[in-house]
Amino acid sequence: MVKPSVLVTRRWPAAVEAQLAENYDAVLNTGDKPMSPAEIREALKRYDAVLPTVTDTLNAEALDVPRAQTKILANYGVGYSHICEPAARNLGMTVTNTPDVLSECTADLAMTLLLMVARRAGEGERELRAGGWSGWRPTHLVGTKVSGKTLGIIGFGRIGQEMARRAHHGFGMNILVQNRSRLSSDVLKHFNATQVDTVDEMLPQCDFVSLHCPGGAANRHLINSRRLDLMKPGAFLINTARGEVIDEFALIQALMFDVIGGAALDVFDGEPRISPDLLQCDNLVMLPHLGSATREAREAMGFRVLENLRDFFAGQTPRDKVI
Ligand code: DGY
Q1: Is 299 a catalytic residue?
Q2: Which of 75, 89, 106, 209 could cysteine-pair with 152, CB 3.0–4.6 Å?
Q3: Out of 242, 244, 248, 304, which one is annotated catalytic?
């Protein structure tokens, strides 16, 4: 039997690549070089399946391929706002993602960022490495207590819920939630959370705000200068979702003029390019998109892609079909 042809756009964990190569006529990206939109367009003409990830541009232009050979885009990652939904639908493509398997690790990282920015851990590390530590003193790098404070979670999907679990059960935080749909009282009770109707209603009540909503046009600049002004002075903003959810220019102003206490970002608008002004903000912790970066999660994401492919080529609906 002829094996379906499959193109992987980035280097994947070795165990997953090995299994992929066994079951498919697979082209792996062993050089791990990001693919250009033109290369992606060519791939869509040649391969039965393309396995992209967040670094790939699959906008309307890239997907404007009238006689595409590709029938499935099996995305490596849970967020898929880099894939233009109407264009993929027009081509009759199936799109899948990899939910669940990275939720705990991503929430761990969001909690890491929250703690780092509250306790000024980034500033402390930078000072120490630069040889600037002059010893213990009562007023040195004094941060903010986390336990018992109020955390606002925007987007209460799997990752948002894992964040709430850590914050509530581990740190006794009060949880406010803003979500597109109404949540059941059982879910809210489990996290001792209260759902609010709007982001505007939530922001003035929170000491910390953590973003867990999808990216894309609908949530672009959800956090803008008006909403940053609604936050408590001294409050902290954490983003492990997508860079475009925050208006970065507005955030830089808010950080520079102490409108909020600080921010911690794992994702950036237009990453890996980082605005030089962000680098000037001391009250900002930055990580290079590490949310799901554990051995366990990255392997599980790959195997989840393989499950989706297997089902698709067996004529079944893949469990993680999003389009
Ligand atoms: C995800 O899974 O969405 C991560 O951000 C990587 O794309």
Answers
A1: no
A2: 209
A3: 242
